[in-house]
């Protein structure tokens, strides 16, 4: 409430849609806390770098130069070169595209999937609920990395399979959350009113329930992104995710490991990149939680 | 007789709140029973908590806030630890919430004693059991070992009273001590409290929204509205209250044998928000 | 009487739900095992086996039968604890796992002690100082722990504390020098070396476990801190906290004697769950520290497609997780007087 009050509302020439106003308020709220601001900035940076990777990168990320292997950071190679003489800075920059791809694909799959199962289970209750929640329980009874490991092992190691595996393990918590939210609205009068007007279940879920679940699901997704990034990097590190020569950050750390003692820059910079992005998502999710609903604090 | 409590022009503003919750409240208390009456949000509980110095973040100002020889405005927390629970204590509203759910009742009572008196565990236990007897608990040994969820509301509140009176304080603030209880046990609990307060000569501040209760158990009454004291008078003169708000409150009470007309609704006036001059 | 029946019903319901979850777990591992691209027969008979041998093994493994029969066979194997042999080590998988699991449990236990010992007080301090600088600082520290890629932090820590400063031992459970010196009784190195009275080995083991355990502990303390903080905030708003202060207890006594007691139950649950989550970190950190435990066993078999071993590992992790959930449930009942 305080966030709407404190922002001086300029008289809009054209009326902005409600959702845009809300989005602007949220962003304004986030920029006021230094930690969420950091999250926002890093995320914006990630997107910009990924978009303009070819312009920002100083070298071809795949170009080997066996004359200049394992060069320490310098003017020509900001973050040094790796064992094949490839420019680490350029590889990091291009790697941001992979990270962003993983994040967006996982979100696109997990959000709708979790929302669908959660709202359906919550809305219909009874047997549907029991069966669906039992399935999520099974998925939740594994640490997500281990389940992803198993999936990747089954599907074969590759970036695409890593994304599929991560998505498969990331939807159950979203479904749980959406179900819990749905249960609180299910008995609400406006749902009953919609039903009395003859709206179909599908319509009620889509028009009345899904929008109510969106804020908490968004927060959860944002917080999950940190885990997704770490899992993806972990898979890459174990050699089960993106395969060389793709400049995936986790895989870069894995190859750099052999030269770590003498050439610290090989592992240091990709690690910092992973840490920053995952920290950014955590801080952002934390800030969003405060912005959208302070009561969400203790939900898992 | 020296007053136990002397408060002049007390104002309290919660952190971040636009307006003070309590403004210019003044009263003195001897070894008597003072009722503070008002609707919810009138600031009556806030006054009680300010006297106990429990409002850590609120901004408190007053010309004078004296408890016996202790200056409540400036006393360091260290001093307050010595005063709280020993010389002044407070009975909270609902034993369901005000007792620690995972400690046995007796242990919680004994803790109040052991905090202020250096003694052995068994002595504290004996004291607590004796005190439970004084609040008319028939089987104190058994109740001592019960958890709060195992006792009824009336019993819980008696445990609370025992805990707060065990150290023979000079001042007890009872914050709606019976509103959470069943109507049938309210009177019983109040009688117990009243008896102990009289016997021990304790100064009592009874915070309540119940006019009849305050009329029956208090010597004097302060009527609060929107953070101010609008009227202060003797309990037996309550029917002769002058202030329109007090009159409105009285008129809104149903009476046995009264007319069966709908009860009048309070008509509020902005002028009530002005400070009241002459104080008791 | 009625209460007893209700309790029995509750236990029965929980039993059924555990059973169903376990069953689902079996289906999951079965399905993953079937879609694995590695040909299990080829893996056993080798590349240049004759067609006859191949067919023989194919039938032995029951791969010619319909899916549901294969699943029943799989279930029979699991129920009789027959998980087959590992292709890589040539030993029964169960035996392999029994050998490597203690190393991981040792590491995880050490880590959870560090994590809970660090996370709980930090969470309490953050809650007591809500929105003031200690809270902000602790928030950043704990989010850091939540955000770091643990395999990377492990490498950096090795570089700094082992290679450069020489404060701790390097990879492995103890110095190469001591390997084989202590008889393996429990496979818990700290216990074995203490039993044997080999205090040098014990010191070396402590020296080696401290770094990976500290890192794992830090990463799990992030979660513990955040949960402790939010539980504590709930409690600090309760009336009994006011009661405690009215009694004349100092703020510190109020927090630790009264409020903390009330979050203990929830904390136990959280710590149990965090312990399970440590298994995940262990997979990565064991790879970095060459820790001969469960995680390393899992990943090295994963890379060569040793299906029996991998599926058994996954199954066991699932069972451990379910077990921890049940355990935390039981602890909840034992510790909270209201549920007794």
Automatic annotation (TrEMBL), chain A:
<keyword id="KW-0653">Protein transport</keyword>
<dbReference type="InterPro" id="IPR025966">
    <property type="entry name" value="OppC_N"/>
</dbReference>
<protein>
    <submittedName>
        <fullName>ABC transporter, membrane spanning protein</fullName>
    </submittedName>
</protein>
<keyword id="KW-0472">Membrane</keyword>
<dbReference type="GO" id="GO:0015833">
    <property type="term" value="P:peptide transport"/>
</dbReference>
<feature type="transmembrane region" description="Helical">
    <location>
        <begin position="98"/>
        <end position="125"/>
    </location>
</feature>
<feature type="transmembrane region" description="Helical">
    <location>
        <begin position="221"/>
        <end position="243"/>
    </location>
</feature>
<keyword id="KW-0813">Transport</keyword>
<feature type="transmembrane region" description="Helical">
    <location>
        <begin position="145"/>
        <end position="171"/>
    </location>
</feature>
<comment type="similarity">
    <text>Belongs to the binding-protein-dependent transport system permease family.</text>
</comment>
<dbReference type="Pfam" id="PF12911">
    <property type="entry name" value="OppC_N"/>
</dbReference>
<dbReference type="GO" id="GO:0055085">
    <property type="term" value="P:transmembrane transport"/>
</dbReference>
<dbReference type="GO" id="GO:0005886">
    <property type="term" value="C:plasma membrane"/>
</dbReference>
<feature type="transmembrane region" description="Helical">
    <location>
        <begin position="263"/>
        <end position="285"/>
    </location>
</feature>
<dbReference type="InterPro" id="IPR000515">
    <property type="entry name" value="MetI-like"/>
</dbReference>
<dbReference type="Pfam" id="PF00528">
    <property type="entry name" value="BPD_transp_1"/>
</dbReference>
<keyword id="KW-0812">Transmembrane</keyword>
<feature type="domain" description="ABC transmembrane type-1">
    <location>
        <begin position="96"/>
        <end position="285"/>
    </location>
</feature>
<dbReference type="GO" id="GO:0015031">
    <property type="term" value="P:protein transport"/>
</dbReference>
<feature type="transmembrane region" description="Helical">
    <location>
        <begin position="37"/>
        <end position="57"/>
    </location>
</feature>
<dbReference type="InterPro" id="IPR050366">
    <property type="entry name" value="BP-dependent_transpt_permease"/>
</dbReference>
<keyword id="KW-1003">Cell membrane</keyword>
<dbReference type="InterPro" id="IPR035906">
    <property type="entry name" value="MetI-like_sf"/>
</dbReference>
<keyword id="KW-1133">Transmembrane helix</keyword>
<keyword id="KW-0571">Peptide transport</keyword>
């Amino acid at each position: 409430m305080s966030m709407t009050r404190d922002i001086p509302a300029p008289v809009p020439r054209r009326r902005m849609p409600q959702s845009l106003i809300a989005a602007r308020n949220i962003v304004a709220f986030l920029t006021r806390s230094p930690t969420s601001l950091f999250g926002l900035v890093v995320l914006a940076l990630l997107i910009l770098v990924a978009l303009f990777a070819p312009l920002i990168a100083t070298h071809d990320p795949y170009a080997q130069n066996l004359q200049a292997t394992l060069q320490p950071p310098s003017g020509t190679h900001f973050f040094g070169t790796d064992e094949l003489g490839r420019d680490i800075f350029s590889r990091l920059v291009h790697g941001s595209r992979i990270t962003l791809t993983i994040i967006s694909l996982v979100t696109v799959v997990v959000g709708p999937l979790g929302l669908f199962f959660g709202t359906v289970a919550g809305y219909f209750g009874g047997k549907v609920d029991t069966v669906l929640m039992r399935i999520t329980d099974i998925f939740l009874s594994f640490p997500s990395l281990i389940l992803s490991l198993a999936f990747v092992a089954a599907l074969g190691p590759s970036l695409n399979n890593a994304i599929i595996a991560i998505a498969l393990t990331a939807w159950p918590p979203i479904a749980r959350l959406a179900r819990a939210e749905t249960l609180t609205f299910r008995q609400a009068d406006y749902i009953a009113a919609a039903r009395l007007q003859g709206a179909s279940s599908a319509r009620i879920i889509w028009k009345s329930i899904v929008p109510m679940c969106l804020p908490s699901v968004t927060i959860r997704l944002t917080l999950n992104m940190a885990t997704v990034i770490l899992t993806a990097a972990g898979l890459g590190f174990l050699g089960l995710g993106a395969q060389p020569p793709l400049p995936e950050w986790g895989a870069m750390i894995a190859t750099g490991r052999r030269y770590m003692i003498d050439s610290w820059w090989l592992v240091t910079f990709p690690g910092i990149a992973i840490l920053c992005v995952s920290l950014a998502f955590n801080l952002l999710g934390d800030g969003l939680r405060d912005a959208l609903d302070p009561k969400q604090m203790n939900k898992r | 007789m020296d007053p136990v409590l002397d408060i002049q022009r007390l104002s309290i503003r919660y952190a971040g709140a636009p307006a003070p919750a309590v403004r210019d409240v003044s009263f003195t208390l001897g070894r008597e029973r003072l009722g503070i009456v008002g609707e919810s949000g009138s600031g009556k509980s806030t006054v009680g908590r300010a006297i106990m110095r429990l409002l850590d973040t609120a901004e408190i100002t007053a010309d004078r806030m004296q408890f016996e020889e202790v200056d409540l405005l400036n006393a360091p927390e260290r001093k307050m630890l010595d005063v709280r629970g020993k010389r002044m204590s407070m009975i909270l509203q609902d034993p369901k919430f005000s007792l620690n759910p995972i400690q046995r009742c007796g242990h919680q009572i004994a803790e109040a004693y052991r905090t202020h008196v250096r003694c052995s565990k068994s002595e504290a236990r004996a004291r607590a059991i004796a005190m439970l007897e004084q609040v008319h608990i028939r089987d104190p040994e058994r109740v001592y070992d019960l958890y709060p969820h195992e006792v009824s509301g009336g019993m819980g509140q008696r445990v609370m009273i025992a805990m707060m009176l065990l150290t023979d304080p000079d001042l007890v603030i009872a914050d709606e001590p019976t509103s959470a209880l069943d109507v049938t046990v309210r009177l019983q609990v109040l009688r117990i409290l009243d008896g102990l307060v009289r016997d021990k000569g304790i100064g009592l501040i009874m915070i309540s929204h119940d006019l009849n209760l305050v009329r029956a158990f208090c010597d004097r009454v302060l009527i609060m509205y929107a953070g101010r004291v609008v009227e202060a008078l003797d309990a037996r003169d309550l029917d002769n209250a002058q202030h329109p708000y007090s009159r409105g409150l009285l008129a809104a009470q149903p009476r046995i044998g009264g007319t069966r007309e709908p009860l009048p609704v309070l008509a509020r006036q902005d002028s009530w928000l002005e400070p009241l001059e002459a104080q008791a | 009487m009625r209460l007893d029946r209700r309790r029995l019903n509750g236990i029965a319901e929980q039993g059924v739900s555990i059973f169903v979850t376990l069953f689902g777990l079996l289906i999951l591992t079965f399905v993953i095992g079937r879609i694995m691209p590695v040909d299990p027969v080829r893996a056993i008979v080798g590349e240049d086996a004759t067609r006859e041998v191949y067919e023989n093994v194919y039938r032995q493994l029951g791969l010619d039968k319909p899916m549901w029969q294969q699943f029943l066979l799989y279930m029979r194997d699991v129920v009789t604890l027959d998980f087959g042999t590992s292709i890589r080590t040539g030993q029964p998988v169960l035996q392999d796992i029994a050998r490597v699991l203690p190393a991981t449990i040792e590491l995880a236990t050490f880590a959870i002690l560090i994590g809970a010992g660090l996370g709980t007080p930090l969470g309490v301090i953050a809650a007591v100082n809500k929105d003031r600088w200690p809270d902000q600082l602790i928030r950043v520290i704990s989010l850091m722990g939540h955000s770091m890629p643990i395999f990377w932090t492990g490498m950096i820590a090795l570089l700094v504390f082992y290679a450069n400063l020489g404060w701790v031992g390097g990879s492995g459970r103890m110095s190469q020098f001591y390997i084989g010196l202590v008889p393996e009784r429990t496979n818990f190195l700290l216990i074995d070396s203490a039993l044997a009275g080999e205090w040098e080995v014990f010191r070396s083991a402590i020296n080696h476990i401290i770094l990976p355990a500290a890192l794992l502990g830090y990463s799990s303390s992030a979660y513990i801190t955040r949960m402790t903080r939010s539980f504590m905030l709930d409690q600090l708003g309760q009336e009994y906290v006011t009661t405690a202060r009215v009694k004349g207890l100092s703020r510190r006594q109020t927090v630790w004697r009264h409020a903390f007691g009330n979050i203990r139950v929830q904390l136990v649950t959280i710590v149990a769950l965090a312990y399970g989550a440590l298994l995940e970190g262990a997979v990565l950190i064991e790879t970095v520290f060459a820790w001969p435990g469960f995680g390393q066993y899992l990943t090295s078999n994963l890379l060569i497609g040793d299906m029996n071993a991998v599926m058994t590992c996954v199954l066991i992790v699932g069972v451990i997780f379910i077990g921890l959930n049940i355990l935390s449930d039981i602890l909840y009942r034992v510790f909270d007087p209201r549920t007794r």
